[in-house]
Write a structure and sequence with these properties.
By secondary structure, the protein is mainly α. The chain is built from 16 helices and no strands.
Length: about 450
């Protein structure tokens, strides 16, 4: 058994892994239930179109990352992390009680406010999530630990999105029971997380989010190797946000499918990232292997372009209404479309895991959480821009396959930019290929 799975036997990793898993699971159960509800049952909630809401609501979720990550990074560096995690999990229980009221009242504003607070919950947890691992894992365990964490996150996303899409048609009581129950399980799991010493307990937390956001970003900018890495990570979230935000409408309006086709797209994409993340340890052999970043980026470009092309060439009669089974048997091109989605996911796993591991090992230990906070600020900014970018292109009459095509072309440009700014990506990629006897 791979050493990364052996980590699940360790108290230093297992409770943290399942706390993170349950948090990501609950995030996506609630978020997907809400997005599916407004996409397929818009008239019961609001007069705003489902297409606009499917683009806007993910932006509501990530806005707190942009606003509060700097403060969250300071808190994570100053205080003991296991207690902090337990506090965040109690906050999650309160949010889910609030969300339940929104489900019972079918009130979009209450549900949107709960979504905003879940974003705040995740913003508070984010700096702890990646700064916890370097305190408890050896350097040669970090690539495997991060791979497990990313795999767990995307399996949680997959399961959460499947369950969330199903819950959109379930009773209000069932929805409320599940989201509150998951929050409670997350808190119970967090009680097993071991003591994690503060990185800098003398730090004085400064509460002005605007000033501290600037301070965090300036600190990262002054360490250009880290800065370029953070930009590379944030681009991953831009690309992923464009795809995931449009999957519900793509499934409904382009593929003429029901909720099960939407779930199918989410499933193969999430499984792809999970598989790619787990494969990183074997491909990197425990090293911080930046060569995998370029390998992953090239794969994301090739299969992202083919996915956009395949989506544009797929011809489906306007009167069709597929479920996932009829979609799979409709045309071979549907199989090619799904293969592109899963391969984009696999190569995205190769791309993202070494980047996070590099930030953990190259950053200053006393500023570990604040560097992660700077990363979360940039991630949030890129994801908000991705929503605005999509709305902007739609305003010119472009359709969803054309949006995917333009995003894939931008990805190619970003890969060239990253290699120019950080030549090590190219050199490590060539060295990695030589070690694999490819060149």
């Amino acid at each position: 058994m791979s050493s990364q799975f052996e980590l699940l036997k360790e108290q230093r990793f297992r409770p943290f892994f399942f706390t993170q898993f349950l948090g990501a699971f609950n995030d996506n159960v609630f978020k997907t239930a809400l997005i599916t509800l407004v996409t397929f049952h818009t008239a019961t909630l609001t007069q705003i179109s489902g297409e606009k809401l499917a683009t806007i609501l993910p932006g509501v979720f990530i806005l707190p990352f942009f606003l509060f990550s700097a403060t969250a990074g300071q808190i994570a560096d100053k205080f003991e992390k296991s207690q902090l995690i337990r506090f965040v999990k109690l906050f999650e229980i309160g949010i889910m009680l609030f969300a339940s009221a929104g489900f019972f009242l079918r009130n979009l504003w209450l549900l949107s406010l709960a979504l905003l607070m879940m974003g705040l919950h995740s913003a508070l947890f984010g700096p702890v999530k990646y700064s916890y691992l370097p305190q408890h894992l050896k350097e040669n365990e970090l690539i495997g630990g991060n791979g497990m964490l990313e795999m767990g996150s995307f399996v949680a996303i997959l399961l959460g999105q499947v369950l969330g899409a199903w819950l959109a048609n379930a009773s209000n009581f069932t929805m409320s029971l599940i989201v509150i129950g998951l929050a409670v399980l997350g808190y119970l799991s967090s009680r097993g997380i071991p003591y994690s010493a503060p990185s800098d307990d003398s730090l004085k937390v400064k509460w002005n989010p605007v000033i501290e956001t600037w301070v965090n970003l300036k600190f990262a900018w002054n360490h250009q190797v880290i800065w370029v890495t953070l930009i590379a990570i944030s681009w991953f979230w831009f690309y992923g946000a464009v795809l995931l935000a449009q999957f519900p409408v793509f499934a409904k309006n382009v593929l003429h499918g029901d909720e099960s086709v939407f779930v199918l797209l989410l499933s193969v994409f999430s499984l792809g990232i999970g598989v790619g993340s787990l494969m990183c340890e074997k491909l990197a052999k425990g090293r911080v292997e930046l060569g995998l970043v370029l390998f992953g980026g090239i794969g994301m470009a090739l299969f992202g372009l083919d996915f956009a092309h395949t989506g544009a060439m797929l011809t489906i009669p306007s009167g069709a209404n597929f479920n996932y089974q009829s979609f799979l048997f409709y045309d071979f091109v549907c199989h090619r479309l799904l293969a592109d989605v899963v391969l984009v996911g696999i190569f995205a796993g190769f791309y993202i895991v070494p980047l996070y591991t590099f930030v953990q090992t190259a950053g200053l230990k006393s500023h570990q959480s604040r560097l992660i906070a700077a990363n979360n600020i940039l991630n949030a900014f890129f994801m908000v821009v991705s929503a605005a970018f999509s709305v902007w292109l739609f305003s010119y009459g472009l359709n969803i396959p054309q949006l995917f095509l333009i995003t894939a072309c931008l990805h190619v440009m970003v890969i060239f930019y990253l290699c120019w700014r950080q030549p090590r990506l190219y050199h490590d990629f060539v060295s990695w290929l030589k070690r694999k006897h490819v060149v």
